[in-house]
Design a protein that fits this description.
The complex is a heterodimer.
Chain A: H1 8-31, H2 45-51, H3 60-74, H4 84-88, H5 92-96, H6 108-114
Chain B: H1 7-39, E1 54-59, H2 68-77, E2 88-95, E3 108-111, E4 130-138, H3 147-151, E5 157-159, E6 165-167, H4 177-181, E7 188-189, E8 196-197, H5 203-206, H6 213-217, E9 223-227, H7 236-243, E10 246-247, E11 261-262
Chain lengths: 151, 269
């Protein structure tokens, strides 16, 4: 004698539902990464994975460790806003191993910022490369670490 | 011939199965730990994302269009060759109105050769025809309500607690919804990894106290970067908001970008 005489199709439906929901819960438990939800609706480990990528640019603090004299000199001139790596190129490898040399500078590094262009703001010092002592090197008159308008 | 399963045999087998079942999660955890150590061996120590709120702002009045930022971004983040940029510079040229046209301004010309990463050549129109011209560096706008994060079907892109918007390359399925959703065109599909890529605010640098590569090499301090939760004495970020009237790009979309611009025109989108 059964107390609850449920129709068999209902029993099967209930069992099927429990089976589906249960297998979903089990799969969810095993497939969700540990750090999911640590900060939000995403994998928290992704942050530190992203943060552990290698750096190419060393940053000015690294330059200051060995070349503080140059930085102190630079700070007195309009080029004080420049970081070393603007002109000298990425220095991450050089900061780790001083034997790795930085890129060799050419006049192209000067004209990249200082060539006249009507879009450039007026306060910025600009020269027309064809008219301004054409054929001479910039460093014959100007010192990049101590720039001045009148050499 | 049927092999007889004795009680001893059965118990041994059951015991082994139980031991294996118990060891499996331990082995899985050990493997996960090893993987995590390998991947994050170089992770910054003691960095708490909840203790920072990074922000970048752009002073377009100071941008000289040298393109060092776009170039440095490519180098620092190993962005694929070709027309893929996480940050780039646009040149806006507004020409003078035609005489007698009763307009305040003529055409608006926008160009960005190679994302500006090699600098800009002479303007496409004669100097005399230019009414106004300026450079605008562009990057991820770090939206408060990021459309890219909202549309991602797998939770692979998200706003971090410290203000960056990142892509988890292990979860990204490369569907490209986020690229369509970004109103600022700041995302692209990497041809190398086949996942969405974007400006990470140089997350590997800022978590170690370094500035993002583009900010590091900006010669005129057009790009200003700082931590809102730990302002420096005479903080450049605070000074920027104090001294400028700022605007954001496409404010009508309700994305509330955190990247603020000073000195841009209404033509900039």
């Amino acid at each position: 004698m059964r107390r609850f005489n449920l129709p068999p199709q209902v029993v099967r439906l209930v069992l099927l539902t429990i089976g589906i929901v249960g297998s979903y819960m089990v799969a969810r438990y095993f497939l969700t990464p540990k750090s999911f939800g640590q900060y939000g609706w995403y994998r928290g480990d992704a942050l530190m994975e992203r943060a552990s990528l290698p750096r190419v640019y060393a940053g000015m603090k690294a330059c200051d460790e060995c070349h503080s004299d140059k930085l102190q000199q630079l700070a007195k001139f309009p080029h004080k806003t420049l970081s070393c790596e603007v002109c000298h190129g990425p220095g991450g490898a050089h900061a780790k191993d001083p034997d790795v040399k930085l890129a060799v500078l050419t006049y192209g590094h000067c004209v990249r910022c200082h060539e006249a262009n009507p879009t450039r703001p007026k306060w910025h010092k600009q020269i027309n490369i064809r008219e301004h002592y054409s054929g001479q090197k910039c460093t014959e008159c100007h010192v990049p670490h101590a720039p001045s308008e009148v050499p | 011939m049927k092999k007889k399963l004795s009680r001893r045999n059965l118990l041994t087998k059951l015991g082994l199965a139980a031991a294996a079942a118990a060891a499996a999660p331990a082995a899985k955890a050990a493997k996960a730990t090893v993987q995590k150590v390998l991947v994050t061996a170089d992770a910054p120590k003691g960095y708490d994302p909840k203790d920072h709120k990074w922000q970048m702002v752009i002073d377009a009045n100071r941008c000289i269009g040298c393109g060092h930022c776009a170039e440095a971004c490519k180098t620092e983040n190993h962005v694929p060759e070709g027309h893929y940029y996480r940050t780039w510079i646009e040149r806006y040229i507004v020409t003078k109105p035609k005489p007698g046209s009763a307009e305040t301004r003529g055409e608006v010309l926008v160009d960005s050769p190679e994302g500006g990463m090699r600098g800009f050549g002479p303007p496409p129109v004669p100097k005399e025809d230019i009414q106004q011209s300026f450079f605008v560096p562009k990057l991820c706008n770090l939206c408060e309500h990021s459309p890219c994060a909202q549309v991602c079907p797998v939770g692979a892109t998200f706003d971090t607690p410290d203000g960056a918007v990142l892509v988890d390359p292990k979860y990204c399925i490369g569907c490209g919804f986020c690229i369509q959703a970004c109103p600022y065109g700041c995302r692209f599909m990497s041809p190398v990894t086949r996942t969405a890529e974007k400006c990470t605010l140089c997350y590997h640098r800022i978590t170690r106290g370094l500035r993002p590569a583009c900010v590091e090499v900006c010669p005129t301090q057009s790009r200003i970067f700082g931590d809102l939760k730990h302002p420096l004495p005479d903080d450049p970020l605070q000074n920027f908001f104090k001294n400028n009237r700022v605007n954001t790009l496409k404010p009508h979309l309700g994305t509330e970008p955190r990247v603020a611009y000073a000195g841009i025109d209404k033509e900039v989108r």
